Amino acid sequence: MPAFLLDDPTPPDPRRRWAELDPAARGACYDNNAGVPDSAAQVAARNAASAAYRAARAGRLDIPYAEPERAAFDLYPAGASAPCLVFVHGGYWQRNARADFACFAEGLNAAGWSVAMPGYSLAPEASLAAIAAEIGASLDWLAAHGAGHGIGGPLVLSGWSAGAQLAALHLGHPAVAAGLAISGVYDLAPIRDTYLNDKLQLIEAEIATLSPLRVPVVEKPLAIAYGTRELPALVHDARNLHALRAAAHAPGALLPVPGADHFSILNEFRRPDGLLVRAAQDLLGQGLRGQDLLGGLR
After folding, report:
1. What's the rounded Cα separation, in Å, for the pair 161 and 171?
2. Would the keyword Hydrolase be found if you checked this record's keyword annotation (predicted)?
3. What are the domain boundaries of the chain?
4. What's the confidence (pLDDT) of residue 290?
């Protein structure tokens, strides 16, 4: 066995013995708030920093892209032709809002990038299929109308936690050059057996068609990031998705962020030299080179 596998500090995937776990143990596999001792303090600090960042850049907020109330963008443009990171927030598809994550535009804006943050409807008011469709509609809107709001450059689609699932699912959208999935859940089947399903009410078709680990691989670049202090289920989902894509020769790095937990990992968006900012920059180069190659082959 290779030495790097022998030295792997990540605990085994608890879902390998899923049938042996009681409901509480299954829920604990995905309970990021309980898994990070200072999660409440981190969330409070994030929300306060986001409120300040959003208030200072109030010119292009709450722009609707579809009919549902939460289907709106906060845009932080850096120039009409600047590259843009589209960031989809998390919250297990049933909590949080785009406004809570405004501070994570800071590093990219300082690096000369625009940032677009779409909101979306939450469960149980919307099914996961409807939520996923809203993200597709948000990308359609950006492609058609973004330039009129200062967003005209190439798009890198990113998301965190539940937003990573939504981002990975829409990598194939024609407006997207590349993707950056952070701390995501990529197989929905175990979620159905936890407290999270009380509001989601997942059906078999959603598990089959909305799980990035179960749908066809898109060959655009997708970097997959996770914190080394994440819950084991999320670490293994990240590794499994990267392995699936590598087996299909799809480009994109696996990015373990040393010492980061499920919440602190996003601080790598707060500085222009943060690891996630640099990952987005690298992905854009890969994505544009891939588009040029395909254009030449046609």
Report:
1. 16
2. yes
3. 62-297
4. 60
Contact present, 166 and 129 (Cβ < 8 Å): no
β-pairing, 155-160 vs 84-88, is parallel
Contact between 139 and 161 (Cβ < 8 Å): no
Q: What is the pLDDT of residues 20-34, one digit of tens each?
A: 999 999 999 999 999
pLDDT digits (tens, 9 = 90+) for 233-256: 999 999 999 999 999 999 999 999
What SS3 state is found at 236?
helix
Q: Are 85 and 139 in contact (CB under 8 A)?
A: no
Q: Residue 218 carries which DSSP code?
A: P
Residue 40's contacts (CB-CB under 8 Å, 6 or more residues apart) are 33
Nearest CA-CA partner of 106 in 117, 97, 96, 91: 117
Listed in sequence order, the residues at least 6 apart from 204 whose beta carbon sits closer than 8 Å to its beta carbon are none
For residue 69, what are its two tokens? Answer: 């109330």
Which residue stretches of 95-185 are H helix?
106-110, 128-145, 162-169
Phi, psi of 223 (to 5 degrees): -90, 140
Res. 1: pLDDT tops 80 = no
pTM: 0.94
